[in-house]
Amino acid sequence: MIIAALLPLFLFVFPLWNITLEAPQYPIPLGMNIHINDFSDANPHDIKNINLMNHYVGMKYIPDAIPEFKIFPAGIIITTILGLIIALKANYRWFLYWFILMILLSAAGLYDFYLWEHDYGYNLDPKAIMKFTNEDGSVMGFQPPLFGSKDILNFTAHSYPRLGAYFLGLGIAASFVAYRVGKKAHKKTQHMI
After folding, report:
1. How many CA atoms lie within 13 A of 159 on its CB side?
2. What pTM does this model have?
3. Total domain count for the chain?
4. Helix or strand or coil: residue 10?
5. What is the tens place of the pLDDT at every residue in 105-155?
């Protein structure tokens, strides 16, 4: 369980997510890494170029900081400390509670990411230089996919987890394994009594 509690700390070292935009006019796709506390370019000046391009259709600029960049790091530190306390002081049943907590917090983080993407892709400036509409006449949105690939005009947007997300997932899975091992050991001890 100690390993499970520590693995999410790799989010402070590796990116959590990546969004990449491919188009014929960009031989090297534009990309943005999303870290637990920052955005970064996949290639030099990518975020600047994404912001310039998105400005034409009325999308907001990708900000330097968002409130989640303060909330998520604190959440990871708190859950890591909680996981370590559970690993050292509590019985195996608490490993399952930590697992459930991490699943719920991860789901909430993904939902928040989806809402951010939706706002970013649909809350467009009505004074934008270029306006696109769907076949039914409604304003076209430019929301990248939460997970996977999606065609948006002449771009293909890709959205996938990165190494930090895999460490988080591995930590969550390891806590469930620790719970199962602890439960099995407890049953074995009960049979011996």
Report:
1. 15
2. 0.90
3. 1
4. helix
5. 999 999 999 999 999 999 999 888 888 888 898 888 899 999 999 999 889
